[in-house]
Amino acid sequence: MVADTILYHPTFGKLTRFLDSTPKREKCFRLVVYLSRFLSYYLQRQGFSPEVVNIFKDLKHHITIIRKGMRFLKPLNHLQAAAQTFDNKLMDPVLQKTTVIRNLGYVGYLSVDSITWLKLMNVLSAKRFPTISTWSSRFWLIALIAGVINSLRTLKISNAKLEEKESEEINQKIYAAKRKLVWDFLDMFICLNSLNYLHFTEGDVGLAGTITSIMGLHDLWKSSK
User: Fold this and answer.
1) How far apart are CA 138 and CA 20, in angstroms?
2) How far is residue 176's CA from residue 125's CA, in Å, rounded to a whole number?
3) Is residue 108 a contact partner of residue 139, using CB atoms and an 8 Å limit?
4) What's the pLDDT tens digit per position in 27-75?
5) Reported pTM
6) In this structure, what DSSP letter does residue 47 have?
7) How many Å apart are CA 116 and CA 133, to the nearest integer?
8) Distance CA 225, CA 27 (A)
């Protein structure tokens, strides 16, 4: 039967295992949020009716609430990662410090973002903490800057090793660091727009977020068994 062929296919099994994980489902929702953000802007520019445009605006709003709820208490993961990295005395000092700062930045970002979620859920008054989203973006920016410095340091170390000895493993590290730079710069583009340091359109921000979401899902898919 066709149904059996699909249900017992290895890819389908991998997909079910992939979606049976809160972090991976959250990343799927991230893709939906930014894609909706892009489509609502694009369709509006193309002259589609407000009803059609509002479908994607409402989808973005509702999925955003779900995403923020799924990330509740996630700061604990980054806090643990920061502590473990801080205790690793064998690590390159620059990589160590930037990894700690990046994780602490995400602790701040996700902690403050949890307050935003409580406001969206009407647990807290919408009038309270009016600048909370700004602080959330600031913490995110700190984490991204630390990530960029970390990737640049990784590139410097890897290129120095590559001059001494050609290695496929080192080439992969260089590729991963360059890819992470692109990823962080795209996320930084989103962050700087939310802080009003840049003033690009919702479509531009949505497209950047869609790209980084796909990159994240690609990595998670590859790491899934």
Assistant:
1) 32
2) 43
3) yes
4) 999 999 999 999 999 999 999 999 999 999 999 999 999 999 999 889 9
5) 0.92
6) T
7) 7
8) 17
Question: Nearest Cα to 195, choosing from 138, 157, 154?
Answer: 138
113 with 137: CB under 8 angstroms?
no
Instruction: Put residue 166 in one of left, alpha, beta given phi > 0 → left and psi -120 to 50 → alpha.
Output: beta
| Alpha carbons 185 and 203: distance in angstroms, whole number | 17
Count of other CB atoms within 10 angstroms of residue 60? 20
Query: What residue ranges of the chain have pLDDT lower than 70?
Result: 1-4, 8
The one-letter code for the residue type at 87 is: D
pLDDT of residue 26: 94
CB 211 within 8 A of CB 186: yes
Would you call 197 helix, strand, or coil by DSSP? coil
DSSP conformational letter for 195: T
Write the DSSP symbol of residue 212. H
